[in-house]
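Figure S7 source data.
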Amino acid sequence: MADGKHCPNCGDDIGVWAVFSAALPNWVKCPHCGARLAYRPVAGLVVGLSVVALGLLAGMWWVGLRFGPVFSLPWITAYTAGSLAAWLPVEAVVVWYVRRYKTLSRAG
Ligand SMILES: [Zn+2]
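Tokens for the predicted zinc ion complex:
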């Protein structure tokens, strides 16, 4: 049965980390058999994520311009850490969402 959790090649649950560590939801790799997998359809999701990512970056940038010297090492470090921290809950929701509502298929 095709769902968002089981590899269509080997039938094992690909787990959360395989999705979490993928750069995009259509670049997932099965941790059991190594098959390249893709969630479909994800075009709308990728566009939505890009908007959220740009919004986070713009927000962080605005905070930097408003409150600190943007081009100093402490700020760049804080900016990077803050961006990652802000992204993690977004990514967690995406992992839950695609596993629940999208279908895994073989890429290519
Ligand atoms: Zn597999």
